[in-house]
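User: Predict the structure for this protein chain, please.
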Amino acid sequence: SGTGLLAVLSARAGAAKVHAVEASRLAYFAKQIVEANAPAGSIDVHECLAEDLDLGTEKCLDVIVSEWMGYFLLFENMLPSVLSIRDRYLKEGGLMLPSRARLFL
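Assistant: Here is the predicted structure, written as structure tokens:
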């Protein structure tokens, strides 16, 4: 989630409920940004690893929006974390954004 920008934009675009996941203490600041810029109660900021996220029910997400790309596309190695969320919580027919990437060498 980082600063929570994608979460705020998702809520402002009409998402009924947004779950923002940030593993670092940056989650503290993301919560402040969310409170100042998003509709009240529309975003939950979770300070945990994506692999440790517990939403209680399986297959409860319609869309996953993530900025997982590092430099040279895969360097930060965030893709496994996003795929963990996808496998546990994305509903059948749900959407991942972005859903593909291309690397030109």
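Helices lie at 5-12, 26-37, 79-89.
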